[in-house]
Specification:
The chain is an alpha/beta fold. It has 11 helices and 5 strands, in the order H-E-E-H-E-H-E-E-H-H-H-H-H-H-H-H. Helix 6 packs across helix 7 and helix 7 packs across helix 9. It is globular and about 50 Å long.
Length: 274
């Protein structure tokens, strides 16, 4: 009798563990978006500590930290950021609750080390944990006469601020192709900048490929394909549907769940992306 009772308790215990595991798996994305802001703020504090002794320029919507030799670029950054602030926020129907932080780095070494980037081609801008990080335009723009124009229309300010909004809205719950495609689309709509096309005969990339291994794909191709997919969604269903998808992602749903709820289709089977 005791043996049967013990077996009964063991079976109940196994069933309870199985239920808890199933609940954890089902609720994982919800838990992720719930705790993400806490984790983000911890890492944000670490990133900002690097610039604690920097000069500070405060604009209407941004707090820009920079070193003395980059004062001109800090002012230019502030002008560009404030100029497009309302337009970008209007696109995403969202505005940050406080001023957004920007750090301008005078050299690649500090940029790479503070953001813990892997060595290789250094980007000119990176959004990370609530902070827009920009490599001083004096390093990568060599046409001094047209520097202001190049920085505004080919620089990272608009792109990285779009990333910041997307991250806030979704609470960090987004695939790379979506945030990169949206940031490029934002530039395209506001400045006309368009990531160059590639020969599709040389590179066959699907949405599934981007979703599963964005970083394993040639970045030139991955960015362009992401832009094309976001543009197709906007052209076909309207940009407001992308905003609806971001809102649902922010509640813990997967990208496929959010697309099904808003677009009423399985985007991984949609032929318009081919």
């Amino acid at each position: 009798m005791k043996t049967k009772t013990a077996r009964g308790y063991a079976l109940i215990t196994i069933l309870l563990i199985a239920v808890l595991v199933a609940l954890f798996i089902y609720q994982f994305e919800i838990l992720q978006v719930s705790f993400y802001p806490v984790v983000k703020n911890i890492e944000k504090a670490r990133v900002l500590k690097y610039a604690e002794d920097f000069e500070v320029l405060e604009t209407e919507h941004f707090i820009i930290r920079y070193e003395k030799e980059d004062e001109e670029y800090a002012r230019l950054t502030g002008n560009i950021a404030d100029k497009y602030y309302e337009s970008i926020c209007s696109m995403y129907e969202y505005a940050p609750f406080s001023k957004s932080d920007v750090i301008i780095y005078k050299n690649e070494k500090g940029f790479i080390e503070n953001l813990r980037l892997s060595r290789g081609d250094t980007p000119i801008g990176v959004y990370y944990s609530g902070v827009i990080n920009i490599l001083s335009p004096g390093i990568w723009i060599h046409d001094s006469e047209n520097l202001n124009h190049i920085y505004e229309f080919n620089g990272p300010v608009i792109h990285e601020f779009a990333h910041l909004l997307i991250d806030d809205i979704t609470r960090g719950n987004y695939p790379m192709w979506l945030t990169e495609g949206l940031a490029l689309y934002t530039e395209y709509k506001l400045t006309g900048f368009e990531w160059q096309a590639y020969d599709t005969n040389d590179h066959k990339v699907t949405l599934e490929d981007l979703n599963k291994g964005f970083d394993d794909i040639d970045q030139f191709v991955a960015y362009r394909k992401s832009f094309e997919i976001v543009k197709e969604i906007s052209d076909t269903w309207g940009f407001e549907k992308l905003n609806n998808m971001l809102d649902i992602l922010g509640k813990g749903s997967s990208i496929n769940q959010s697309a099904r709820a808003v677009l009423k289709t399985n985007i991984f089977e949609y032929k318009g992306f081919d």
